[in-house]
Amino acid sequence: MEKLAIHGGKPARSKPLPPNYPGAVVMGDEEAQAAAHVITSQSPFRYYGPEVNYMVKALEDQMSNDLGIPYVLGVSSCTAGLVVALKALGIGYGDKVIVPANTFIATAGAVVCSNAVPVFVDVDDSLNMDPDDLERVMDDEVKAIIAVPILGNPCDMQRIMKFAEKYNIYVIEDVAQSCGIKNNGRFAGTIGHIGVYSFQMNKIITTGEGGAVVTRSAEIFERAVRYHDQGMFRDKQRFNIHFSDEDHAIVGQNYRMSEITGAVALKQWGKLDEILSSMKRHYNKISQALSSELPGLQFRKVTDPLGDIGSNLGMILPTQDIAEQFTNALNAENINTNILYNGKPIYMVPQLFHQRTADKNNFPYDYPFKHPVKYTEDMCPRAVDLIARTVYLPVSPVLKEQDVEEIIAGIIKVYKGVMGGRG
């Protein structure tokens, strides 16, 4: 058996894989020139200036056309977008929102910062929200679900929407990690009542920070626009929405996207199809080769293979200890892999688990719920089990064929070395 690099053997690759920044690694002169044009126009604010280029508007219009959804709003970050979405739906103090146990802290944090409280649902073999577990956390104080397709793999949106319709609650899609995925041919983010996208550094396309909110509802959109812009709605004519300020103005915050961000995002959005096509091609080749050579290796379940974007290959190992050995050994081979969120459900981060906030009496957790919100370490047992032993291989859009071959050979080498006679 070939000696592993972690034990002094020759690495499968001579250098690390490209960094896991899909959008950033394809940045170039196009983004630089677009940003420079905004700067030389001396008009970085989207609504007024000496020579506004309306880059944010162009981004919104392009996303609307490509996603097939009428209303798109550029915002300063995905977290801001989640808060805007919750506020647009009227979610607040005394409300609960269902959140998957496997997600980034921003999903649950946005709920708390919107003055509501998250309740956590378990995952299935896709590592996404398990529709069969929704009933466990459902009560009359739950007002919404946030569905999160983790790392490019679609959620089972049909069942989630059916559950939401049964109880007449809202569905928010947090598509931060999975821009471009589809579910039964429909873009994620456009299936629920409102969807949120991220353009943060790690994401499929990036502006460093930034995001977008999408919806099919004029009423929800109007509230989203107002909340993101201090209660104002400056584009009534553009959208032919004429709710009066006297009757509809609400107190809001500043979550506006800048023109520089909009200009970069527009160029990145234009590269999305190329990024997705490249990742999916590499992903398919790697996964097919590993399936053939390593029949004992379990992969993360993919709910919709045609809708999955192939940004990350999830490999499920028999135990947490073996998963950690597998990850460390692969990294020594210069095949960069990771276990998500330190191997723990997101409710285990201390600020959530202990229900601590910056507000008096840990508001909004101080609300006297009829059904008190309590978090325990084992409340989502499949998440506890699966997150800790799932190893992710990020699939870069700029991989070369040699990279792909070395990844395949390296994973086979490490799997056989780590598993030994165990299977």
Automatic annotation (TrEMBL):
SUPFAM superfamilies named in the record: PLP-dependent transferases
Recorded superkingdom: Bacteria
Gene3D superfamilies: Aspartate Aminotransferase, domain 1 (3.90.1150.10), Type I PLP-dependent aspartate aminotransferase-like (Major domain) (3.40.640.10)
Annotated InterPro entries: DegT/StrS_aminotransferase, PyrdxlP-dep_Trfase, PyrdxlP-dep_Trfase_major, PyrdxlP-dep_Trfase_small
GO molecular function, one term: transaminase activity
Annotated family: Belongs to the DegT/DnrJ/EryC1 family.
Protein name: DegT/DnrJ/EryC1/StrS family aminotransferase
